[in-house]
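Researcher: Good morning. I'm working through a list of sequences from a screen, and I'd like to move beyond sequence-only analysis. For each chain I'm collecting a predicted structure so we can compare shapes side by side. This is the next one on the list. No need for commentary yet; just the structure.
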Amino acid sequence: MGIAVTDNPGVVARPPLIYAAALLLVLVCRWFWPMPISAQPVAFWPGLALAAVGIGTAIWGRRTMQAAGTNINPGLPAKAIVSSGPFRFSRNPLYLSLTLIYLGLILAFNTWWGLVALAPLLVIMHRGVVLREERYLEQKFGQSYRQYRSRVRRYL
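Model: Good morning. Structure tokens for this chain:
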């Protein structure tokens, strides 16, 4: 019996779920030991503004991928290399938008726990999602992906 080959990058989990799990962990830690960033809730509105920028970027990236006719879910096959919209500036604008949303919520919730969890969250995203997607896209699209990768930064 052979091993089935799947046409996807084999990411560890869907990125929104990874960020949601990290945020849930942060909120649980905050419940037991608040560790506020500031004694005053001065970062609430800037945090919501940062999250709003992240949401806007996510919507832009999602619409760009839909217009290109490719799947947004990394568990499904990629159908095209998207190099327009926010993908002109970053190869991973949707993940950057999730990070902006996460950071905005951390500021709004006023807790250092979010920054404590940020490093492991970014390592999981980089190793468990981004690097796997890059290997997959290079295998699937070859030279056209390598050209895109040489023109556009991974993150910013």
